[in-house]
Every structure is written in C-alpha cells, then in structure tokens.
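Quick question, first post here. What does this chain look like in 3D?
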Amino acid sequence: MRTEEVSNDFARISWLSVVVLLGSIAGCGLPNRSSRSSDLEKVSAGLTKVQLSSNDIDFGELKKGGRAERELVIRNTTETEIVFGPVETSCECLSLDGCPKRLAAGQSVTAKLVVDFGHELDFMGGLDMELKGQSGKGERLFTLNVRATVVQP
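> Answer (accepted):
Ran it through. Tokens below.
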C-alpha cells in the first residue's frame, strides 16, 4: 500500500469519527428531558422495594477489638413477596444477622447489624462500610452505609 492510500484511508476514518462525535454532541439518540425523569422514577421505584429503619448507621467509637450491634427493621414495601439473595458487605467485620430468606408483601422483620473488630486487632481509625442486599434474582434491594471509629482501649 502506498503512503497516499494510507493517508486517504486515515482521512476517511477521521472524517467518520468527527461525524459520529458531532452527532453525539447534538443529542442524537439521547432521551428527551421527560423520558429521562421517567427513567429516574423507574430506577427509584426499583430501589424502594425494601425500606430500612435507617440508611445510615454510625456505631460511633468502639474500643480496639470491640463489637457492637444495632437493630435494623427491614420492610417489604411492595405488593408481592420478596425473595432475598446474598447480603454483600465491604468489610468482613460487618454482618447482618436475621435477614429473612423471604418477606411477604407489606411485612417487616427486625434484623441485627453487627460490627465486630475481634479479628482486626491491629486496626485503628475511622471506617466507612457498605452493606448491600440483593434479591434472589440479583436485583439490588437496599444499600446501607455504616461507619465506626476504632480507638485505643
């Protein structure tokens, strides 16, 4: 292939890239404002299947190697039964005991949120953690933000 042919092919590819970029900037393919707000409502509706007594829990200061518990009410806000899947945590020191396998429509259950630094004896300082609940189908049902500060005994 000669240099002129390579240069022409490059020019065609560059021109096509500019057309695609300009189309994107002009808003081609983007939903209009009302459609975006309706999409937001759908997302919000999906995230409110389960209502927690609190979305943010601060355990405050815990002594090094310490453990603390808080009650957490979990409520099914839908008109159908929810099947729970696994609960994921960002730290092994955080767990949720008593999370049901199933929760009937409109029903509530009280679970126990536990933070235990017994296996983290060297850790000191503030820690922001997250606990995520999922349905059996892998849909996110809730996210709980948890904070604790570990201090000297």
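The first strand starts at residue 50 and ends at 52.
The chain is about 25% helix and 45% strand.
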